[in-house]
Amino acid sequence: MDMTIGCTRWAIAEGYIPGWSHGPAPELESHETCCILNAGERVANVRITIYFEDREPAGPYRLTVQPRRTRHLRFNELEDPEPIPRETPYASVIESDVPIVVQHTRLDSRQAENALMTTMAYACD
To answer: What is the residue range of 68's domain?
Structure first.
């Protein structure tokens, strides 16, 4: 049974990777995460474009999510075509050739009392 759900374009209007962390890496390193669910029967070819306040966008960053799988991608780990700068506000658009579901999660460990936030990304189609 095909469980294809979601949309092919998502947006996360808010992003920020702190320049430092209080906890041990990688578990408690401050980060932003894009959680992607591909519940369908085909590989999802995903492109992420990063937008900034004062410069041209970065990307696309390319990745795949296998059928009937999830992938938790830390924005901190994106390197190609360039790392996402720390301590810089940004937004992201996530596009896929098949429907996916996207959730945004942030761990801010700049102080001993960690802050964890999660929300659904905005579905654009």
So the answer is: 7-124
